[in-house]
């Protein structure tokens, strides 16, 4: 019995020593806390002026769409959050957060109630699942991967409108040609 207890405590103490000797283990937990506070201040409450506590002077963003590998000033995170707060009320919630080394991944749901026409048209009020992966250096976010499920939002309307406009333009060309031929034909018939 004592031998089993001794072996168990030996294994636990070896694991504890291994964890305490991992220099990234403590920093990983600190990064998770910084990431959580980043969301709480900028997205869960309208404390966007605190962006400077969390984001390096410049950071690289890897977003869906055209914004891939773009370097931006830190204030851009404030500007994005301010846009949402100016057009409605955010009521997000955390799903989960995982971290490894200098990376922290957070899955959260952004529930949004638009107050303005701009917010209603371009953002909508459906909850949006988002996964962000943040890379940290010296306690600040230096890289940002953004994965939103935009199909659930009104963002898809821009593609519908773009397709509609292109379709109308394509239809307009033969319509103008037919109208000119009709006028030409009428002139010929009057002679």
From TrEMBL:
Keywords: Membrane, Signal, Transmembrane, Transmembrane helix. It holds the Pfam family SnoaL. InterPro entries: Cyclase_SnoaL-like, NTF2-like_dom_sf. It comes from the Bacteria. Residues 1-18 form the signal peptide. The chain crosses the membrane at residues 159-179. This is Ester cyclase. It comes from Robiginitalea aurantiaca.
């Amino acid at each position: 019995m004592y031998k089993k207890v001794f072996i168990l405590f030996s294994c636990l103490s070896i694991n504890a020593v291994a964890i305490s000797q991992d220099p990234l283990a403590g920093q990983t937990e600190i990064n998770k806390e910084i990431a959580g506070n980043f969301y709480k201040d900028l997205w869960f409450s309208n404390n966007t002026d605190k962006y400077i506590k969390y984001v390096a002077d410049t950071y690289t963003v890897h977003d869906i769409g055209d914004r891939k590998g773009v370097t931006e000033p830190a204030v851009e995170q404030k500007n994005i959050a301010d846009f949402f707060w100016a057009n409605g009320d955010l009521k997000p919630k955390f799903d989960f957060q995982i971290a490894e080394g200098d990376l922290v991944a957070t899955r959260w749901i952004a529930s949004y109630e638009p107050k303005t026409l701009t917010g209603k048209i371009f953002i909508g009020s459906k909850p949006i699942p988002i996964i962000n992966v943040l890379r940290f250096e010296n306690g600040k976010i230096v890289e940002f991967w953004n994965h939103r499920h935009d199909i659930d939002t009104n963002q898809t309307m821009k593609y519908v409108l773009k397709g509609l406009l292109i379709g109308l333009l394509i239809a307009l060309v033969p319509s103008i040609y037919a109208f000119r031929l009709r006028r030409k034909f009428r002139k010929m018939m009057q002679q």
